[in-house]
Structures are given as structure tokens and as C-alpha cells.
């Protein structure tokens, strides 16, 4: 039976913005399924509670990408890897990809459908708001939405990154280190691009989920409230807990109007100690570890009961350690060679030219090229809404018989043709990376800041190096940062 083995990174201690390099050494001897192997970047989010009343609270937190804008892009786990390379003792360099974050992030926008992205979100460190319920739960806590067991923060929450998402060589099912020798993996991380954020804020919760029944019973002290309308009889029915933003251990603020002489309560902090839900009737109640009110006297009541979700004072992300998790093959079949594709990267700047021309030297074996335009605000998403048309020439031969207009049938033809030639299928034409802090699900894929733009085309192989001429027409701010990725077929023989 296959087994998983863990290898700790050469570097020890916390991974920071300046200490962001990782090295792993795989000893010679075993055969590994690299396709099912992955990195774990282990970390946690520290929170400072906004109140001491009711004990320590558990906050719903997530990671987001650091940008110069308020809008935050949805990013793939692989985007945490900035540069990557792989070497082995017998053959030397296997892969060396610069700006693998930009490459994989933007390719995923086209080759993964939205449904596929949603299906894979169980490992996403950057979660999107759910289409129903507006809920956003990260991996940094385990939540209990019914009962009296308190939710708990995770001391070790891994950012899990498949090796096959980083390097295409790692899509092999058998890699024999007995023949390849000791293997070294080196990664440079975008640690400075990760920041913690409190999610499931009050602004994202509908008013109907924040209104609770009036309380009129003499002696009531505010230890329990029931979802309902502003009267003593009507209860709002809950058919699914996924509709509710509350969990045991959450801190909320209670506001209630006092009637009949009772004092008004404003933003009283409490921690949920238990949640009860009657599936048959739909009745839903919150119980607290402390009382938010004062015992009601004769004729007194609490009405217009409202709750808001409390924010923590601060949230801080720490990446504490890294490990390589390898699937060791117990009964290998024996593979003599591994065919794969890698990429060479060239980075230039268009200097805001509206009529951009450049001549690139391309390797003889290069079979496809992809131009991406990482936006300066986040340095990740290939965005340039100012581009209007382009044309590519290879060794003085036009690759199209006319200029390619943005979003034209010819542009989509080049897109589908190139992806197919690269070994991918075009599954998504939404062309938007997604916005992780959208106010509603309807705004997740509609922000123009994250409309991706790629220029790509297959190339014919030659005996010698070839010259690729790139002509781009743009308006507005013109052409700025450009990453040119050149796909190179490779064969690894032991």
C-alpha cells in the first residue's frame, strides 16, 4: 500500500516577508507519485478580542491578497508560490519557472469552470462568499452551528498546494529518486502578499437574520433570544443551518429597546454558548454565557431586539512552518522517461505606450507563447482593459492574417487553439478572476478590476532560435508590465 511521508523544509522558524525562501531535499532511494504530493504551509491567525465579557470569542477569519485597492482578488493557493525550481543529482535542472504565481493564477481562470473552482474550494485559503446565505468560512477555525460545544481556532491551518499545480513535471505518477538521485525543490513565496481579515461581518448579514422576538416574561435577563419578529408570538422559521451566520463561541452585540420602564440596552457584548434548532418547527435560539440585560420587572419588556456581529480588535496571520508531503509508491511499474512541458519567462515593461512593439528571442523548441499583464495594484491578475488589438509575427511570418481585436471571434479562436495545443481545454469564458471581498455574490465576477486579458498563440518549432514580434494597440494608460511565458517541451530520461 502506498504511504505518505513528510519532509520538513531546510529552513526552520517562522516564514516572514523577508524570510520567504523554502528548500526541500528528497533523499535518493524511493519512488514517489508527485501528482498526489503537495506542500503544506502551516500557519494560524491570532486574534485580539474586542471584549473580555463572556470569555474568549472565536472569530471567522480568512486570508486575502494585499493590494493598493480596496477590492481584493480571489487567488488560487498556488499563487503563494512566486518562483520555483527543481533539480536532481543525476540530471541537474529539471524546471525553473519565474513568476509561476501569475502563470498559474491566470491560466486557471480559463481552464477551470466556476463549478470546478467551487468544488475545489475545500482547500482554498481564500474563500469566496457562498451564493446562498452570504457565508464565508475559512480554514482557520472549526465551527459548530448547533449544540453547546464551542467552536475552536485551528493552531495549524495549512495552505495546501499541489506540486502538479506548480510544475508540470510533477504531474508524473512515478518519479524514481533511486535513479535520479537526491532531489532539491526550491521555492520563493509571496509571503508579503498575504494578510488576515475578519469575514462574516455584520454588513454581509441580512436584517431578517438579526431580528429577534420580544421578551416579556418577568425575571428575563437576556440569556436567550429567539429568531422572530417584533412581537411575542411569531417565530422566523429556519429550514437550513447554512442560512444562519451564527456559531457557538461567536461574539455578538445585542441592542434592545426597553419598554414599560425597562432600561434600553445598546451593543451589549455577549458570547454564544449554545444554539438550539428545532428541525420540525424551525425555531432557532441563541444562548449566551453572560446576560446582556437586567431582570425584567412587572410590566417591563425588551422589544426591537437586534444583534450585530462583533469585530475583533486585530487579526494577524503567522506562517509557522512548511513541509513537503510525498506519496511513496509501494509497487512501481517502472517509467523510463517523463515527458512534460515547462516555461521560460521574460519580463518587460511597456512604459505606458499606446502603440507597443517589441522583438523577443524565442527558443527553437517553443511551441506556445502567452503574454500576461500583471496589474500593478496587485501584481497577480493579468489585467489591461486598455488593450484594443494586437498582432504577432514569427520570423517575419504573420501568425494571423489581420489584427486580433479584443473579444473578437478571432481572439477566442486563438485562445481555444493555444490552450488545446498546450494540453488544456477552454472551460471558462467569464474572463474574471473573481473578487474575494464582494458585497454580494452577484458582484463576485463582475468587477472590471479583475477582468483578465491574455495574448497567446501557438508557434511552429524551428532548428534555431526564432524572433517573435509583438505589436499591441492600446488606449488610456497603454501597455505596462508584461510577462512573456514560452512553453518548452522537455523529456526527462534517467
List keywords for this structure.
494 residues; mainly beta; five-stranded antiparallel β-sheet; 5 helices
Task: Write up this protein.
The two termini are 25 Å apart. The radius of gyration is 27 Å and the shape is elongated. The strands form 7 sheets. A 6-stranded antiparallel β-sheet has the order 13-18-15-16-17-14, with no helix packed on it. Strands 1, 3, 9, 10 and 19 form a 5-stranded antiparallel β-sheet that branches. A hairpin with a 5-residue loop joins β15 and β16. Helices cover 8% and strands 40% of the residues. It folds into 2 domains: 374 residues, no CATH class; 108 residues. The chain has 5 helices and 28 strands. The protein is mainly β and 494 residues long.
The helical percent reads under 10%
Report the count of strand segments: 28
Structural class: mainly beta
Percent of residues in β-strands:
35-45%
Instruction: Report, as a whole number of angstroms, the end-to-end distance.
Output: 25 Å
- Describe the biggest sheet? 6 strands, antiparallel
In the sheet with the most strands, the strands line up as 13-18-15-16-17-14
The overall number of domains is 2
Number of helices: 5
Average pLDDT number = 93
Determine Rg (CA atoms, Å): 27 Å
In the predicted model, the low-confidence regions spanning at least 5 consecutive residues are none
Task: Tell me, briefly, the overall form.
Answer: elongated
Amino acid at each position: 500500500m502506498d504511504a505518505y511521508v513528510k519532509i520538513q523544509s531546510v529552513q526552520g522558524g517562522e516564514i516572514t516577508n523577508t524570510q520567504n525562501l523554502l528548500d526541500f531535499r528528497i533523499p535518493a532511494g524511493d519512488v514517489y507519485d508527485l501528482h498526489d504530493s503537495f506542500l503544506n504551509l502551516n500557519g494560524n491567525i491570532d486574534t485580539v478580542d474586542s471584549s473580555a465579557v463572556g470569555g474568549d470569542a472565536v472569530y471567522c477569519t480568512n486570508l486575502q491578497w494585499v493590494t493598493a485597492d480596496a477590492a481584493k482578488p480571489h487567488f488560487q493557493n498556488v499563487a503563494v508560490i512566486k518562483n520555483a525550481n527543481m533539480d536532481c543529482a543525476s540530471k541537474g535542472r529539471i524546471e525553473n519557472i519565474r513568476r509561476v504565481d501569475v502563470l498559474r493564477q491566470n491560466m486557471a481562470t480559463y481552464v477551470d469552470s466556476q463549478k470546478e473552482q467551487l468544488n475545489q474550494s475545500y482547500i482554498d485559503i481564500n474563500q469566496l462568499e457562498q451564493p446562498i446565505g452570504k457565508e464565508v468560512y475559512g480554514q482557520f477555525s472549526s465551527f459548530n452551528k448547533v449544540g453547546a460545544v464551542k467552536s475552536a481556532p485551528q493552531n495549524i491551518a495549512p495552505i495546501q498546494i499541489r506540486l502538479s499545480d506548480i510544475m508540470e513535471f510533477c504531474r508524473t505518477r512515478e518519479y524514481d529518486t533511486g535513479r535520479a538521485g537526491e532531489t532539491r525543490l526550491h521555492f520563493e513565496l509571496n509571503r508579503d502578499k498575504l494578510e488576515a481579515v475578519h469575514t462574516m461581518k455584520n454588513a454581509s448579514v441580512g436584517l431578517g437574520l438579526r431580528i429577534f422576538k420580544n421578551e416579556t416574561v418577568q425575571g428575563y435577563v437576556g440569556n436567550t433570544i429567539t429568531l422572530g419578529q417584533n412581537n411575542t408570538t411569531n417565530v422566523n422559521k429556519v429550514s437550513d443551518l447554512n442560512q444562519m451566520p451564527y456559531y457557538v463561541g461567536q461574539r455578538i452585540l445585542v441592542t434592545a429597546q426597553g419598554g414599560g420602564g425597562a432600561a434600553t440596552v445598546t451593543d451589549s457584548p455577549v458570547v454564544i454558548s449554545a444554539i438550539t434548532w428545532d428541525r420540525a418547527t424551525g425555531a432557532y435560539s441563541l444562548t449566551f454565557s453572560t446576560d446582556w440585560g437586567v431582570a425584567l420587572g412587572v410590566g417591563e419588556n425588551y422589544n426591537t431586539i437586534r444583534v450585530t456581529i462583533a469585530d475583533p480588535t486585530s487579526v494577524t496571520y503567522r506562517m509557522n512552518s512548511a513541509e513537503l508531503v510525498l506519496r511513496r509508491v509501494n509497487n512501481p511499474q517502472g517509467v523510463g522517461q517523463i515527458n512534460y512541458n515547462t516555461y521560460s519567462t521574460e519580463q518587460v515593461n511597456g512604459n505606458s505606450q499606446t502603440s507597443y512593439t517589441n522583438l523577443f528571442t524565442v527558443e527553437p523548441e517553443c511551441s506556445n507563447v502567452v503574454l500576461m499583464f500583471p496589474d500593478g495594484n496587485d501584481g497577480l491578475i493579468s489585467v489591461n482593459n486598455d488593450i484594443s488589438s494586437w498582432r504577432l509575427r514569427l520570423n517575419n511570418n504573420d501568425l494571423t492574417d489581420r489584427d486580433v481585436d479584443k473579444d473578437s471571434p478571432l481572439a477566442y479562436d486563438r485562445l481555444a487553439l493555444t490552450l488545446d495545443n498546450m494540453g488544456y481545454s477552454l472551460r471558462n469564458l467569464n474572463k474574471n478572476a473573481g473578487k474575494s471581498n464582494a458585497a454580494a455574490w452577484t458582484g463576485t465576477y463582475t468587477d472590471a478590476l479583475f477582468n483578465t486579458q491574455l495574448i497567446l498563440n501557438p508557434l511552429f518549432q524551428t532548428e534555431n532560435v526564432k524572433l517573435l514580434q509583438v505589436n499591441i494597440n492600446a488606449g488610456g494608460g497603454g501597455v505596462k508590465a508584461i510577462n512573456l511565458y514560452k512553453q518548452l517541451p522537455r523529456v526527462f530520461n534517467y
